[in-house]
């Protein structure tokens, strides 16, 4: 049976539209929460329209909207699509003021604007004709706090933008509705293409699911800040610098600001390689820095670690021991393969899962403590290549991309969270790994093995090119670490 479409599909903008009783209704795939294809979103669009139509048909008659409420949102959306964010912001403020009961700056068609020009053609003074509202006084109040810059609009342009009777603005909106920008020239369309490319890298196992999801979140934030329908060629050096200033003033962590900026920069570099937009001259400016993001390293007390392991049940004691004995994460434990364990001598020999494809990352040979070795043999799975699996035979950690969305299940973290809550401890699994590395780092004899324990790339030129960590000394460091916990 063929699919039934209640709305019309707009493939260029990946959205659905419907004309009903003289009003056009539009809903995007993003708003529907579906994949941006016709086949994947039509059922959600049908359901949305059924609910919307029922609401419209049952809605009691209302007072007609004023000219300001009808036209100013259209003017605002036009400004956003063109990248004129200062004008869009000003219109938004004016709309909010009107909806709060304030008098409009431009009330009647007769409140025309008289403009005095200087000889060089620039606006020198804006004078509204006498009326009930002192437009310039309110205008100056509205301008407070707006971002300055080379593209700052004049007072005249702002007053034009909030006049619903402005024939120039009306004509711009009309032409813009007729001459839609192709999707592959808009910010939203290009972000979608870039994410398609990144998804293909995930499928080829060239990019982790977690890194893809971070890229998606950062670029969707950048897209929404610019406006998805804005033509990409409206993005200029001033707009890029404004984004940096926006992030600089945001209340997110320094590290997350850096990530948002880095992924937006990577996206624009990709756009430039496709010849769609010339490289922005200030794209990699050294002035765009967010400062130091270093945080204090939080560790556990040795007694706390021992208590957690003693109380834990099932496989969890082994998981916790692997974290302090071998610096493992939940993913490392879930990914541990049969051929990465020396079953004769009680060792784990592997690269860290997160950086397994990096050439500079070392293959680390960990000597297991007696407790760790006994529990590993006890819980070893003999079916398949994974050493440790759940009772149902599945992986402890799953991180998948399903229809473009990240689906992650971490059973180890869930088990630990319940354990920590039962002991009234506000602790995380990352702190176990940090505790062992900090113990090594604070020991003068074994401090140089802290990075090797964490399976990090060598930091110094000496370590990268001239010195190979001694396996014998590293074994001694691991044994010393076990004595600190009381397991050796």
Gist?
By secondary structure, this protein is mainly alpha-helical. It has helices at 29-32, 38-58, 67-81, 85-99, 135-143, 155-161, 167-178, 187-203, 209-226, 237-249, 254-273, 302-311, 316-326, 330-335, 370-379, 411-422, 430-441, 450-453, 461-465, 471-485; strands at residues 8-10, 15-20, 23-28, 113-117, 123-128, 341-342, 347-350, 364-367, 397-402, 405-410.
Features:
488 residues, mainly alpha, DNA polymerase, domain 1, three-stranded antiparallel beta sheet, 20 helices, 10 strands
Describe this structure in words.
The chain is mostly helical and 488 residues long. The protein folds into 4 domains: 8-58, no CATH class; 67-178, no CATH class; 183-273, DNA polymerase, domain 1 (Orthogonal Bundle), CATH 1.10.150; 302-485, Orthogonal Bundle (hpI Integrase, Chain A). It has 20 helices and 10 strands. Helix 13 (316-326) crosses helix 15 and helix 13 runs parallel beside helix 17. The longest helix is centred in the N-terminal third of the chain and has 21 residues, at 38-58. The radius of gyration is 30 Å and the shape is elongated.
> How would you sum up the global shape?
elongated
Which topology of the largest domain does CATH recognise?
A: hpI Integrase, Chain A
Strand percentage: 5-15%
Helix content: 40-55%
Question: How many β-strand stretches?
Answer: 10
Strand order of the largest sheet: 1-2-3
Distance between the termini: 69 Å
User: Secondary-structure element sequence?
Assistant: EEEHHHHEEHHHHHHHHHHEEEHEEHHHHH
CATH superfamily of the largest domain: Intergrase catalytic core
Instruction: Provide the low-confidence segments as ranges.
Output: 110-119, 123-133, 143-151
What is the CATH-assigned architecture of the largest domain? Orthogonal Bundle
**What's the level 1 CATH class of the largest domain?**
Mainly Alpha
What is the domain tally?
A: 4
Q: Briefly note the structural class of the backbone.
A: mainly alpha
DSSP helical segment count: 20
Mean pLDDT: 82
Largest sheet: number of strands, sense, barrel closure: 3 strands, antiparallel
């Amino acid at each position: 049976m063929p699919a039934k479409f209640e709305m019309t599909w707009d493939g260029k903008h990946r959205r659905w539209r419907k004309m009903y009783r003289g009003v056009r209704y539009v809903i995007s795939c993003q708003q529907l929460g579906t994949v941006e294809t016709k086949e994947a979103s039509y059922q959600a669009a049908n359901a949305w329209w059924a609910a919307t139509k029922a609401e419209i048909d049952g809605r009691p008659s209302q007072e007609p909207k004023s000219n300001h409420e009808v036209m100013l949102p259209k003017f605002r959306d036009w400004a956003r699509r063109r990248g004129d964010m200062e004008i869009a912001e000003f219109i938004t403020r004016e709309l909010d003021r009107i909806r709060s009961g304030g008098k409009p700056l431009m009330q009647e068609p007769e409140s025309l604007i008289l403009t005095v020009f200087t000889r060089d053609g620039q606006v020198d003074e804006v004078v509204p004709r006498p009326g009930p509202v002192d437009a310039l006084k309110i205008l100056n109040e509205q301008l407070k706090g707006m971002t300055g810059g080379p593209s700052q609009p004049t007072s005249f342009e702002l007053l034009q933008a909030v006049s619903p009777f402005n024939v120039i603005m009306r004509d711009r909106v009309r032409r813009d509705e007729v001459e839609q920008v192709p999707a592959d020239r808009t910010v939203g369309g290009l972000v979608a293409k870039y994410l398609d490319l990144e998804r293909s890298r995930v499928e080829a196992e060239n990019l982790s699911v977690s890194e893809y999801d971070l890229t998606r979140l950062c670029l969707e934030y950048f897209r929404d800040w610019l406006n998805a329908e804005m033509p990409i060629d409206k993005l200029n050096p001033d707009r890029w610098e404004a984004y940096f200033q926006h992030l600089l003033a945001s209340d997110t962590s320094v590290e997350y600001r850096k990530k948002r900026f880095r992924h937006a920069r990577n996206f624009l570099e990709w756009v430039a390689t496709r010849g769609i937009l010339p490289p922005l001259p200030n794209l990699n400016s050294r002035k765009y820095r967010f400062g130091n993001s270093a945080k204090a390293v939080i560790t556990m007390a040795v007694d706390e670690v021992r208590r957690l392991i003693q109380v834990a049940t099932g496989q969890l004691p082994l998981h916790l021991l692997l974290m302090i004995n071998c610096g493992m994460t939940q993913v490392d434990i879930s990914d541990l393969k049969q051929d990465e364990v020396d079953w004769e001598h009680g060792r784990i020999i592997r690269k860290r899962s997160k950086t397994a494809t990096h050439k500079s990352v070392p293959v680390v040979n960990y000597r297991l403590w007696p407790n760790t070795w006994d529990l590993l043999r006890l819980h070893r799975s003999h079916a398949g290549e994974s050493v440790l699996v759940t009772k149902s035979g599945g992986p402890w950690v799953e991180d998948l991309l399903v229809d473009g969305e990240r689906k992650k299940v971490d059973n180890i973290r869930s088990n630990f969270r319940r354990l920590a809550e039962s002991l009234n401890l506000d602790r995380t699994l990352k702190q176990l790994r940090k505790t062992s590395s900090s113990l090594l780092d604070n020991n003068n004899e074994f401090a140089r093995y802290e990075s090797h324990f964490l399976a990090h790339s060598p930091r110094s030129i000496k370590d990268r090119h001239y010195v190979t960590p001694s396996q014998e000394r590293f074994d001694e460091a691991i044994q010393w670490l076990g004595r600190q916990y009381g397991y050796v």
